[in-house]
Every structure is written in structure tokens, then in C-alpha cells.
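for the writeup, i need someone to sanity check this before i put it in the appendix. the sequnce is what the collaborator sent (i think, or maybe the updated version? ugh). structure was predicted straight from it, no edits. if anything looks off just tell me and ill rerun, i have time this weekend
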Amino acid sequence: MDVAMANAADLYYSGYNAAATSNVGWLNWSPAIGWLSISPEEDIHDEKEAMAWQYSDDYALARSSPEMLDHWSSSNVSEKTLSSAEGTPAEEPLQLSSDKGIRLIHLLTAAAEALAGDQKSHELSKVILARLKELLPSPASGSNMERLAGHFAKALNCLLVDGEAEDNCSGIETTAITAASHLLQDMSPYVNFGHFTANQAIVEAVGGERRVHIVDFDIMEGAQWAPLLQAFMSLKNGPPPSHVKITAVTAGRKSASTAVQETGRMLAAFAASIGLPFSFAQCRLDRDGCFRPAALKVLRGEAIVFNCALHAPHHHHHSPASIRSFLASAAEFGARLVTVVEEEGRATAAVGKGGFLVGFMEELQRYSTLWDALEAGFPKQSKAREMVENLVFGPRIAGAVEEAFRRREDEVTECWSEWMAAADFQKVSLSFFNQWQAKLLLGLFNEGYRVEEEAPNKLILGWKSRRLVSASVWSAQSPPAVADD
């Protein structure tokens, strides 16, 4: 199968034809769940089995060495409950059972405090971090708490090197990072919760349209979209769209553009393998990191969807101004649907002097919760767990710490669902099936996860007493006229 390409830097077409065959890495990727084919009356145990991910060796793990995979399987997780946390008492993550654990927390706090406020002392922070390093064993032999402390110590140390966070994944093949991202999806609902909720809302909103155009703020490896493309081909109430286009927003850096190009190539090949006409384009942010509507080409008759998933603060174009410009543009285009996935529990008020320490402790608590959740389901040391911690969470911790460090004392961290409401976006109620699907997803994992319906258009994933991530769905008013094809 040949994948036709137009404007090599930006645009890919699926090049589908009826005789096409492919061994593309995404050919066998996608949850086994039949989108829009499950009725709540069906046997729930059978559907839990149907939702289990069946990753093939050809997908994200392609070109990865076998030893990277070690032991990982959805069969290792509990099947006891759907909501997984109803009535679970509030518990603090990573209970410290030793004096050493308490000392690590105290040293991390002291090192962060030395960098906070007006009287910043880099030298004091260096001394504290050196002492902390002496207490930490090698990552391979460290305890759960020790490994987490090591990542936060590294993030603080990065701030002391020319005041810039280093690239935690430099020299690491994109394939390995992609593999680690998909291992996380098998270990936790943290990522797929947002993907599933957003995708189901998209299918319900534009499934009957001839042309669908999705604008994605942060496409990363594109894992969200292969299941959606498959879902369009499985619609029961009508034919699939005659054409689907995905436009990925990029920061304009060459490295980012190259990675997005590869994502587009794989999505186009996957679409061709299932027979869906498809094209892929890039849309670059301006020099100020803001999204400009003029950079996006929209054709008459396209049902427009804006997708904004904010899982990775280490991506430099996730500044509040950048996100705000993207979401505001959704209103200008009269987007049929706007899906927002964001981390919950981050400070939404200016924290004043010493704000970095507040932000640092907040992120330490957040990742302690995620560590605790992973430990509950995958307590054994393995290559899979190591990859997730080092290639996924390590860079995210570094990015979150840097973001907290650079946040102005008077700067307010936006809660984007609140911003959407204030900007007069309309709430789109989540269907019963979408809510039921979210609870069903949690049944694949260990007890402790819960789903909370905060509003008719918003679901929140939590672990015990801590909120982790939310997904909300919106629409813009009065779509404006756009250029003809």
C-alpha cells in the first residue's frame, strides 16, 4: 500500500483503495471494544472482557527489544468492581513507614524552599540535594518512595543548571517513549479515561457527518485517534464519514514537526488499512506560542472538533496563553464539539510569596498519588514499570516542577472547564453510555479508582480521595461561514 503525501512537511492522505493491505504498526491496535455497539443491558462481565486492550507486537512496541517488555498484562489486575472505589475511605498516598522516607520528604521540601521566595539560595539547594542523593540507592533497587524522590530531586537539580529543565528523554528513541506510554495505558486508566470519554462524545456528535475535521492541540503519538477512526467505520446507524481530517497543532520546532509527521504517516496508513478516506495536516503556533485561526484551513461542510488534552506540562506550548488562544479559536470556528481533558487539583489561585514551594508540594502530592495507584496494581519491579516511570512520569515531573518554578506569584493557574463556561461555551451533556463506559473502564483495574460526575458534561477520574484528571465536553455557538472547497 502506498501512502500518498501532499506538501511533505504538513499533509498526509490515507491513499485508501479496496485492495490495500498493510502491516502498519497500528493495524492491530485499538481496544477490542465495539464502539456504539454495546447496550447497557448486555452482560457487564462480558463487556469488561471486551474492553481489555489487546496490543499487538506490531503496534507501539514495534522496533523495541523484547527485554523492554518484561511482564505486563491486563490479566494481572483486579475484576472486583466497576466504580472501583465506592465507599473507599480517604487515604494518603505513599504512607511513609520509615524515618528514611520522612527524611527524604523533608530534604526535598528544604531544597524547594531554598529556591522559593525573594531570597533564593541555589547554593543551599545544591548542598541539600547532594545530601539527598547520598540517601538514595540506585533507581533499580530503590523503594517506591525512593524512586519518586529521585525524580523530584532530579527535577530540582535541573533548575540549578542554567535555570533550565533538561530534556529527560534526550537520546531516547521515540519508539521507546511510545512503548512506555502504551504500557501506562495498560497499567492505569489515567490516559484512556480522557481518550475514551472524548472519543465517545465525538462519535455521538459528528458520527453522521460526511466530512469531519479534528483539530488536536497536542497529538503526541496519536494514540487517541486510531480507535476513533475504527469507531467511525463501525457506526450502526449510518455510513462512516466520507472523509476525516486531523490537524495537529505544533510548536514550530523542527524536532516537534518531525515527530508529528511520523504520527501523521502512521495514522494515514492505519486509516487506509481500514478503508477510511483520511488526511493529516500540521498547524504551527506563532512566535509567541499562540494559535492563530488564520493558520487553520477549514472547508465548507466540515464538522469541526477541537480536542485539547493537557496531560503533559513538559510540552513547552502548554502555556496558559497558548491554551487560551486555542480554545478561543474554537468559538471563532463555531466548533461542533470541544473536548477538554485536564489534570485536576492544581492550584487555581495566586499563591503569593513562596509560591514555588506550594506548587512543588502540590506536584509531589499528585505524583505520590499516581505512584501509589501504580503500586497497587503492579507492585513488582519490572522493565515495564521502570519504563513508565523513567520515560513518561520522569519528564512530566520535570516539566511540572519547572512550570511551578516559573509561575509568577500573582499568576492564576486556569481551570479550563471553568474558563470554558465563563467564555460562554455551551455544555454538552454526556450520554448515559459515555458515563457507563467510564465506569466500565475502571473495572479493568485495581480497586481505588473512582468516577465522579461533577456536571452533566464533565467526568472526573480519582484515586481514593484524590482527583486525578477530568474530561469535559462543550460546543461553540453560531458556526460562521467558511471558505468553499
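The chain has two domains: 5-78+188-347+413-475, 99-172+350-406. The CA atoms of residues 30 and 227 lie 5 Å apart.
thx in advance!!
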